[in-house]
Amino acid sequence: MTQTENDQVLISQNVAILVDGNNIERSIHAETSTPSTMLNFDTLVPRLLGNRGLNRLVYFREGKQISSKLKERLHSNYHGSVRPCHKSADIPLSIKATQLANKVDTIIIMSGDSDFVELVRHLKAEGVRVEIAAVPATTSRLLIDEADYFHGITRDDWFTLETKKTPRKKAQKT
What we know:
By secondary structure, the chain is of the alpha/beta class. The chain has a single domain (36-160), classed as 3-Layer(aba) Sandwich (Rossmann fold), CATH 3.40.50.1010. The protein is 33% helix and 25% strand. β6, α6 and β7 form a beta-alpha-beta unit.
């Protein structure tokens, strides 16, 4: 039997991606031993979405030192936003997820932190599909098991910024 245009399934899902920036950054840096390694959102977001629509992308990060380039790139490419957090991203991310629960079909939480297990259970009880995207080696097994789907973040999903080496001035003899 061949598939015709009338037989194709149209997937119409709204997806929110909520990123625990500190957790993902630590996980990637642990894998690469390089603090200048960053997520490549240009390849990762389309892979996570598949053929679904992006409702919003929010990057939560502890501290005030947040790259203005990251803010600008997420806003211009995905209408995303960066939310600085007083301490951990856990509570602000959880609040945003519960606020979005009746507005989206799927929430993708980018974190491997087991602190989100109860959030995943709550969202699923509300009828939301919950997916986890994280580095497998640093992701809680309990979190993976609780989610509807797990997306492993791999070396294909990050890049390392080349650091410019500035020439050292030779010490002058006096």
